[in-house]
Amino acid sequence: MHRQPIVVGNWKMHKSPREAIDFVKQLEARVCEFASVEKAVAPTSLALSGVSAALQGASLLVAAQNAHWAGGGAFTGQIAASMLRGLAQFVILGHSEVRAHLAETDANVNRKAKAALAAGLQPIIAVGESLAQNEAGATVDFVRGQVSAALDGIAAADMARVVIAYEPIWAIGTGKSATGEQADRIIGAAVREPVRDLYNDRVADAMRIQYGGSVKPGNMAEFMVQPNIDGALVGGASLDVDDFAALVEIAARVKGS
Ligand code: PGA
Questions:
Q1: What DSSP letter does each residue of 83-100 carry, written as one string?
Q2: 236 CB less than 6 Å from ligand 1?
């Protein structure tokens, strides 16, 4: 089954609204020719409206870095998924930094994913094990648990809009990535197979799964050649126009037929 490759830049707490707009204008000019690849940037919330206005009609799409499940209310510092309508097509949920620093739980990721889908957004649900879990051989069980918890109660019909990003925590921002084969094996066993069990072959075979964790132009092809990997969620390398453009070009060359 053909799945459209998807490369998303997670800018984390980088780039002011002004810098974000300048960056996406340069990046769009470099990546618009690679129509076979879906690509998006995730700026800070503050830059979402400027970036989304600058990208009207562009090939580059926009992702938010988080969203709240409630439609509104007394939630200081939060943004409702429904408020992102018209500003973003995607929302990253369950990133390990949010899990670690903001006490994000699997149950909240699930509530957020449902709210995002209800708002017409495509959730990019990030999962991944710690170094200790990895060394203890607990990766598949742990990630499988994160995947089933995140998808609890999500209808098969909505699954076409769900993307899962497998990001081993020990590989994020460390320069230490998993190998392509390792990542592919874990994604198969801990993400695609559980989705097959929870739903069916059609849903599992159509679902797009990214690898994330120190993806750079130098190792992108190693991930893109893997059968279970449909793209990348990229932090550090997405902050540089040349690197980001190279990642999209590699995804197009390897996967985008
Ligand atoms: P990195 O970040 O590419 O800098 O490792 C990935 C991520 O956190 O999504």
A1: GGTTT-SEEEES-HHHHH
A2: yes
